[in-house]
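Example record used in the benchmark description.
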Amino acid sequence: MSELRRAASRVKRLVREAGQPVAARIRPRIEHIADERIRPEVDALRATIGELREELERVDARCDDLDGHVKWLYDEQRRLAPHLSALETRVAAVERPGHVERYAERLEYSAEEADEVRAEHARIRARLSVISKYEERLGRLEEEVHRRAEIEN
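Model output (structure tokens):
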């Protein structure tokens, strides 16, 4: 069996050596034909990549614009939250029966009324904080969904 293997390896070597000049002459032609057939696909892919890069630049620019707007809105919301809390407390006090007459008579609060207002302020601030975090999370999730949809398309 070993002689058979040696003979097979010699035959393979002889075929390789004999076919090398032919393969060297045919190889450029094969490469040229393969290049001609693949070239349109490669060019189409390059054009698509170029379009995607341009679109990515536009999306990045738009995201930067939106990021600035979101930051401005977030700052405004933080700035207005305490004022809104104070207004909600005043409206709640007016809505309670019996409180209107007491507030109309004087402009100052008693200690227990001040504690009640502070507690209400704390509850409203907590609610606004939760709402703000929820809206921020929703915005990030919407952005992620939009980004994934863009990638899939």
